[in-house]
Amino acid sequence: VVRRRLLQRYEHQPFISCLAGFYSCRWKRYQRRRTEPGKCCCKMRECVFFPLLVGAFCFSLVFLYMWGEAKNDYNNFDWYNYGNLGFWFLWSLVLLIVAAILFMYIALLLVLAMCLLAEGQQLYLHWSHKIGTFLVLGFSITGLFILSVLWGDQWKTVRLSFQITAPYLHIGAITIMILLSWPVALHAIRADKKVVQVIIIGPYLAILLFLFLIPLGMYSPCIREMGTLGPKPALIGHRGAPMLAPENTEMSFQKTIEHGGDGLETDVTISYDGIPFLMHDSTLRRTTNIKDVYPNDTTQNAALFSWDTLKELNAGTWFLKDKPFSCMGSLSRADQNQAMNQSIYKLSNFLRLADSQNRLVIFDLYRPPEKHPYRNSWINRTLEVILNESGIRPHLVLWLENDMRSFVQSVAPGFQQTMGSKAPVEDLLMDNIVKLNLAYTEMSSEDIRKYAEANITTNLYVVNEPWLFSLAWCSGAHSVTTNAVHTLKNLRQPLFLMTPQQYNIMWILTDLTSVLLISLIFAL
């Protein structure tokens, strides 16, 4: 008899039982009578906690979006952590996975809560989920705060991303508002007090109106008239092709050339005996086997070693061991063997390779530390190698170093003088600047166009993601420095490109369709 009564009570509502089980861990003790729409649907404690659940969802969504769009700079994040922790690990990928899992968890709880409300059930979030909600909220807020303090430029990346994703985010947000219109209408129309109706409908309509009008304030250089898109930006390999080969090695630059790169970028340091060589870090710890050969010298500045010592170090085995990029893919056996036998590359050999393949070169030139023999003659020694030892044609050199620029122009007038920061056009022309080398976060189609009118081209660094490359293309950039020549070379047109008329039609149709659907739902 007892079993028959239990079956009569619970088996006729399995859906609600499942919802309550996941949300409240009450697999059979769901509310027997439905709460009428418009009535209080939960206890005061749960009413207070529900906004926290919504807040956790919002903050986790913002963090996930921010970190997802920061993928272009994951290698910089991992390199920063390597400098602090002393070992290489893909922390950026771990952080992305954790953020995605936490967002999906909190989104599931919110969906369960909305379903329970739609079914007229009281909300009772289990204590374990409440702890989980606080953890998600704390993780998201802490993550956003730390990234804002240590890596504030990522907010510029987020703002740039809106120029590509905003139309699709708008459609997604409108879709969510349509789905929410059913429970909102159900509870608002049947509410017995006008105040309750205003509290329910007011915020909903305010958000909906905001979403309808927000496209008016949207700007994207990829929304342009047909036929006005400029040529595809040239591709300059950042330290070669560091996703395919060890950075700043001969193999890396050869890979860039094989995949159609238009230029080569590198970093130049001068050895203790005056041989310029390619090395990005101030020490040899990350990209060589210095730890195995000279374990007591791992923290010594790379410029304090002689070339005889440097040329004996292996500069490739670390690449196969640490896998510096999460999206590297697998290497062929031949490429693995070639990578394992790479050594530190001399500047003179690098320039000869570029000249033989007719490729542009641009490099950061590092001044040696105190007490270095070439501390005060570093530029002279570099020029000596470029002009007398390498034989590279001067017009292939994009000279970036700002110190002694007038002297460099006098001895090497054929160099393409390049500035690493924005400045008034008049000042740039006075210094014979023909190219700007800017961080992609400084991207501005208006500035690029202004400089182009004065015959000053713009190179943006470091651009790895297709969406960011698409934005640089639409903005009119002449070239980009990238780690991903092999993928960007295959991009035939920007990922997002439409005319203003097409965008207006999409926007208006989306809004009109949503108004029609929401009106029908409220009418029913």
TrEMBL record:
Localization per record: Membrane
The UniProt record lists the keyword Electron transport: no
GO BP terms: lipid metabolic process
Membrane topology: Multi-pass membrane protein
Residue ranges of every copy of the GP-PDE domain listed in the record: 233-492
Transmembrane annotation, as ranges: 48-68, 88-119, 131-152, 164-186, 198-219
Keyword list, A-Z: Glycoprotein, Hydrolase, Membrane, Transmembrane, Transmembrane helix
MF (Gene Ontology): glycerophosphodiester phosphodiesterase activity
Coiled coil feature spans: none
Pfam families assigned to the protein according to its UniProt record, in alphabetical order: GDPD (PF03009)
Domain of life: Eukaryota
Cellular-component GO terms for this entry: membrane
Family per similarity comment: Belongs to the glycerophosphoryl diester phosphodiesterase family.
Protein name per the record: GDPD5 protein
Species, as recorded: Thalassarche chlororhynchos (Atlantic yellow-nosed albatross)
